[in-house]
Amino acid sequence: MTSLSIELTIGILKIFSFVVPVLVSVALLVYLERKVLGAVQLRKGPNVVGPFGILQSFADVLKLLTKENLLPSSSNKFLFIFAPMLTLILSLIAWAVIPISSTYVIANINIGILYLFAVSSFGVYGVIIAGWASNSKYPFLGALRSAAQMISYEVSIGFVIITVLICVGSLNLIDIVESQKNMWFAIPLLPMFVIFIISALAETNRLPFDLPEDEATLVAGFFTEYSSISFGLFFLAEYANMILMSSLTVILFLGGWYPPIDIFPLNAIPGIFWFVIKVFLILFVFLWVRATFPRYRYDQLMRLGWKIFLPFTLVWVVITSAFLFYFGLLPN
Amino acid sequence: MFLVGSFFLFAAFLITTCIFVIFSKNPVNSVLFLVLAFLNSTFLFILIGAEFVGIILAIVYIGAVAILFLFVVMMLDIQITTLMFNIKRYIPLALLFAGIILAEIIYLTVFKTSKDNLDTFIRSKNNTEQIGDVLYTEYFIDFQLSGIVLLLAMIGAIVLTHVYRPTIKRQNIESQNSTTAEDRVKLVKIKSGEGIKDD
């Protein structure tokens, strides 16, 4: 084998070492969600398939695979099939730059955070193409809602990221985590942390902002016409996106792979463990929010995004940079 | 070798997608091909080592501008035949712009050969830092001016499309949030046989 093919093989193995755990954790996250919702609502949740019902999601996937894939007769066939694939691809390629620990990352690039921001902003294409290609009223309305919603919340996510970048002085994700070795950014930038989590909920179309798939008004939103595995791909992508946004929160605000306090028994544990624990906690917050809050009305959602988050984050960027400049704390 | 090969691959894709943007019968397909064209130009920027410019192009044009195009085009109810007919009207204007851009490219490549300069500039260190170094110092005025141009365009668009309608009823969220139960609900004791006095 030539050196190029060896490199390619190693690259492919590395990619699988990320994609397979992500897909397995999606299945476990769906199970966890149903268990948490069950516990909040004083039910048992899934408890039949496998021990404690842990294989429930795998059974659901098998069921979806055996169903017939329906194509609406007046739909744009190519785009109809392409949309769920695009959504899943976009939620998986983002993992190329996520550093699980200081060495365990597929591509350590200079502009990692911009790459993630770009990929997450492309996510809206899957939704909007699905809604348009279905050639049906409810999916179309769902797609329009979701396009407006995702663009609105991307703006405040952008400003939150800028605040963090001002404190770090680098766009590299590993540098961002390493600058939090002594203090996590969640402490000095607490308001930004909260805004980021809320915007992440809106960006991944989760409750209380799941207006694109609002059952009460839009049947199932943009994937009303989807069945079988093409529906499964949307479902998979939504949960993969949740895990992605949680890891991004951990990287930006919760010190990535660093333990909470840098003392002996804690810092002997490998960094991957801390990373996974933190991602798990953020995911639990996602589910907890879903079980607790009612859905927002659409105008309330837009008002929150444009009239509250945008001015607040904008002012906070100025305050942070002024503070750092005045006390000479700016990096470099 | 690999770099040159990928350059020609992406450049060929770029030109093909651009041709499809023009000749697609369905305007939504045109916008989607436009997205592909933006993506290919991002790849080209990354190939010459200007990853910051490339990714910013992707974020701004694919992540925001093209979505708004798609948003508008999806809601249009266009007859495809009339659209194809109308294309001929714009050909002279398109040729004019193409000529101007071609002249610029020829001017830059033939008469102003600063290629080595650009290459060393891009490859010397982290190009994000380099852009940051010159953007707010050397090109500060130009940067602010382009911001003002964008602001003017935004205000202009709002002024052109905003219609003041005095009959429209707007929601007053502060007053809605500050209402109490006493403002909305009144408990009335009704004596039997008398009914409610409406006051």
Bin the strand percentage of chain A: under 5%
Helical percentage of chain A: 55-70%
> What summary fits the major beta sheet of chain A?
none
Largest interface: A-B, 25 and 21 residues
Number of helical regions of chain A = 12
List the quaternary state of the chains: heterodimer
The total beta strand count of chain B reads 0
Poorly predicted regions of chain A are: none
What radius of gyration of chain A results from the CA coordinates?
21 Å
Encode the helix/strand succession of chain A as letters. HHHHHHHHHHHH
Q: Find the structural class of chain B using helix and strand composition.
A: mainly alpha
Low-confidence sequence ranges of chain B: none
Give the overall shape of chain A, derived from the CA principal axes: globular
Q: Residue share in helices of chain B? A: over 70%
Could you give the order of the helices and strands of chain B? HHHHHHHHH
Total number of helices of chain B: 9
Structure report:
- The complex is a heterodimer of chains A (332) and B (199).
- Chain A has 332 residues and is mainly alpha-helical.
- Chain A has helices at 3-40, 56-66, 77-93, 112-133, 137-168, 173-178, 190-203, 215-218, 228-253, 264-267, 271-292, 298-326.
- In chain A, helix 4 packs antiparallel against helix 5, helix 5 (137-168) packs antiparallel against helix 7 (190-203) and helix 7 (190-203) packs antiparallel against helix 9 (228-253).
- With 199 residues, chain B is mainly α.
- Helix content of chain B is 75%, strand content 0%.
- Chain B has nine helices and no strands.
- Chain B has helices spanning 2-23, 27-47, 51-75, 80-111, 115-124, 127-135, 140-161, 173-177, 181-184.
- In chain B, helix 1 (2-23) packs antiparallel against helix 2 (27-47) and helix 2 (27-47) runs antiparallel to helix 3 (51-75).
- The chains are: A mainly alpha (332), B mainly alpha (199).
